[in-house]
């Protein structure tokens, strides 16, 4: 009998920080295939910052055969105001031409669909070039529907800069709004804090240590929602300097009931730097109460810090 084709055995895995150069190379190969190599300027450092920064701006998955990368998927999350739910947006999926026809592309899309359903996304979307008929046929076979009545609009370069200057002037009038915590009594805020900590304990009991921060964040948000609490995730923290609002890359992992800030960690040990970080976030966002929750501990109480400003 003929030996099995090793190409038929592939694995999918989430990308890690060391994969940034690999992702940059695969993106360059994709750009060349799409005849857009002149537009592909992203570097490995760019992907490292975007995919593995705090917070991550996008996420990636690799397909490998015998530990050799042969494809990837890169995605991020958007939001539908009509559905009132987040969506999963597939920025790129690419499989090396020598390894097409093995089911890798379908497996990547299936893995993303499973992730979208698990994270309660309302839908999953992506673009396709008009001339790429093989890809269009493949997407139709997946069950995707073309949104031909929509036209993509884009701002970039000088046009983006010009509009941003107008936005900076408008943002200078930004004033801090009253938080819900300002309306809670100390007793009510303390009761809410106990519920939040108990939810964290429940997640830790079920999952234990050793997972990524994003996994704990997803599960804790679900636990809090199941208890009837409002949860906002990855909330932007602007800096107001000399009456001008500066939008930054800083994000609060969670804000519970517009009253309590949560920062999720999965580290060997909490440090003074972690505490200083959340204290600064509290001051910038004008919240009074915050929690550091480190899930990478054996006893959950060892990973809790309560901070007040």
What labels describe this entry?
alpha+beta; five-stranded mixed sheet; 24% strand; 309 residues; single chain
Topology readout:
Blueprint: E1 11-14, H1 20-33, H2 44-52, E2 59-65, E3 68-80, E4 85-95, H3 104-118, E5 124-126, H4 133-142, H5 157-171, H6 186-207, H7 213-226, E6 231-236, E7 239-241, E8 244-246, E9 251-256, E10 260-265, H8 272-285, E11 289-294, E12 304-308
Parallel strand pairs: 4-5, 10-11
Antiparallel strand pairs: 1-2, 2-3, 3-4, 6-9, 7-8, 9-10, 11-12
Query: What gross morphology would you assign?
Result: globular
Largest β sheet strand count, sense and barrel closure: 5 strands, mixed
Tally the beta strands.
12
The whole-number mean of residue pLDDT values reads 89
Q: What percentage of the residues does DSSP assign to strands (E)?
A: 15-25%
Could you estimate the helical fraction of the residues in percent?
25-40%
**Count of DSSP-assigned helices:** 8
Poorly predicted residue ranges: 172-176
